[in-house]
Structure formats: C-alpha cells, structure tokens
Fold this sequence. Notes:
This is Mevalonate kinase. InterPro entries: GHMP_kinase_C_dom, GHMP_kinase_C_sf, GHMP_kinase_N_dom, GHMP_knse_ATP-bd_CS, Mev_gal_kin, Mevalonate_kinase_arc, Ribosomal_Su5_D2-typ_SF, Ribsml_uS5_D2-typ_fold_subgr. The protein is an alpha+beta fold. It is 42% helix and 25% strand. Strands 1, 2, 3, 4, 5, 6, 7 and 12 form an eight-stranded mixed β-sheet that branches. The protein has a four-stranded antiparallel β-sheet with strand order 9-10-8-11. The protein is globular and about 55 Å long. Bound molecules: adenosine-5'-diphosphate and ligand 2.
Amino acid sequence: xxxxxxxxxxxxxxxxxxxxxxxxxxxxxxxxxxxxxxxxxxxxxxxxxxxxxxxxxxxxxxxxxxxxxxxxxxxxxxxxxxxxxxxxxxxxxxxxxxxxxxxxxxxxxxxxxxxxxxxxxxxxxxxxxxxxxxxxxxxxxxxxxxxxxxxxxxxxxxxxxxxxxxxxxxxxxxxxxxxxxxxxxxxxxxxxxxxxxxxxxxxxxxxxxxxxxxxxxxxxxxxxxxxxxxxxxxxxxxxxxxxxxxxxxxxxxxxxxxxxxxxxxxxxxxxxxxxxxxxxxxxxxxxxxxxxxxxxxxxxxxxxxxxxxxxxx
Length: 313
Ligand SMILES: Nc1ncnc2c1ncn2[C@@H]1O[C@H](COP(=O)(O)OP(=O)(O)O)[C@@H](O)[C@H]1O
Ligand SMILES: C[C@@](O)(CCOP(=O)(O)O)CC(=O)O
C-alpha cells in the first residue's frame, strides 16, 4: 500500500473578483488529506464519509482519476482506495482538491510509472471538474505544489516568499455550508447591476492584490492586515458576506488580529485572520467561545508527497 498527503488552501486575497479576470493570491496550508492506494478489487473508503459506492456521484472524481491513470499511464482500472482528511469539507479550504491530488499521486506511485507533479495536478484537475464543473484550477495547483501562488486568468505564478516571521494565520470555520455556485452568480449579478460603479470596485480589488504582493515581499504585516480588512469590505459590498463572517472578522480584530476577512466563496465557510504570534492565544480563545472550529495554520511549501503511515478502515 502506498500513501500520499496533500495540503488544503486558503485564498488570501481576491476571491470573486478573480472570476472577472482580476488577480488573486492563495496559500497552501498545513491541513492535509491523506489517501492510500493498493492493488485489489475496486473499493473506496473514507474515514470521514464511510464506504463510497464506486457507482455513486461522490465517487465520480475518483473514478475519473483511475480512468485517466489507466488510459494515459497503463495503470490498472481497479484499486482499493482509503481516504482520511483533516480539512473541513465544503468550507472553502480545498478539501476536494487535496483528496484528488493525494489520490492521483498515490495511484501513480502504486502503478509504478514515472511521473511529475504536473501529471498529478493535471489528473487531479480532471477529478475537480467532476466536483465543480469548471474550476479555476487554483485548488489543485496549490495542493500539488504548495506555497504561495498569485493567479490571474488561468496563469499561476509562485511567489518565492512566505508570510512574515512571527506571524500566524488563524482560520475559523463558521460551519455554515454555502453553495459556491450560487454565491458566485449573485455576486456577478450585482456587479452587472452596478455597471460603472461595479467596475471601479473590481479595479480597486485588483489593485489591492498587487499591493498585497508588495506587502508580503516586504514582510509588512500591519499593511497586509489592513489590506485584508479592505478586501473584506469589498466582498461585503458585493454581497459575498454573511453576518457570521462579519461578526468573526470583528471578533478577530477586537482581540488583536491585524487583519481578517472571509476567504473563499463567503456567506459562511471560513474567515481568516492574521496576527502576531503573541496575540494568537487570545484570539483563539475568543473564537472558541463562539463554538466555531478554529485552526492555527502554517503555510505548506512542499505540496503533495508520499508518506509512510497507512490508513486501516
Ligand atoms: N474526507 C473526505 N472523504 C471523501 N471525500 C471527501 C473528503 N473531503 C472532501 N471530499 C470530497 O470533496 C467534496 C467537497 O468539495 P467542495 O464542495 O469543493 O468543498 P471544498 O471547498 O472543501 O473543496 C465532498 O463533497 C467530497 O466529495
Ligand atoms: C469565489 C471564488 O473566487 C472562490 C471560491 O472558493 P471556494 O470554493 O470557497 O474555495 C470562485 C472561483 O474562483 O472559482
């Protein structure tokens, strides 16, 4: 049996605006999906979801990945697959991409062919299409390569830097599940209704991402935090926020975070905050009183890789 892990992600800046061709920045984070593969009859088991029927809708991405590996790389068309993930599902942290990337990696390892990370990302993307229809590709890119990525109109550029030292990234999962497609559509409808004004808001959002790149390169955390708050305000203006997102943003800032914003599609999902390490305890405690799941996440710079531990159903 071979096993691989792949990281989840957060969008630091630019979600929604990216849909209209403006830039965004994503970061792979150290919460992982682990997938183990062994030769045998066709069987899919998830520690979180239980057995998954290979003919079900849930299994479609995994079956597509197996099919591609079989057609393009001459691998078998039957494997036993075991999935275990610590990434919250459907919260905007790229849980599906991390599962698909770790599956593609461990499948090619088991099959014994030579492959590159590009192969893994491409095959995982085919699985992502089964989940999302037409995803931007940022989730599988971040999960495969790790690190900090600037993306715009389908082009990805790795930023060879990280968050400043002595800085922590806090993720609060509201637990509110939303329909990404619906939020994206409604934001776009408002954009169209606003006409010229909408265009100005999107231009500001694009400019903000460029300024965020400079702040990251300079290690300027207070600037980065302020830009996060402005980004949240723009997302609010476009109707992507819900009261729980705004409330948690306030809660983080009032307890010492330098900045906070919703991350991903919004209207629930996750809120991220940036803070100096010494302030994280107070922020985490304050969030826990709200009964939301809270994670202190570290950047992952490695992306998908093999791992020795197995998963037993
Ligand atoms: N632990 C898991 N086991 C099996 N499938 C998973 C697991 N985590 C995520 N998935 C798959 O990913 C889907 C969630 O993807 P999606 O709605 O895009 O949310 P996210 O933003 O977390 O990627 C789930 O419906 C499921 O098919
Ligand atoms: C809102 C959007 O910008 C990000 C959606 O992020 P997520 O599915 O919540 O991770 C949509 C997209 O980029 O396809």
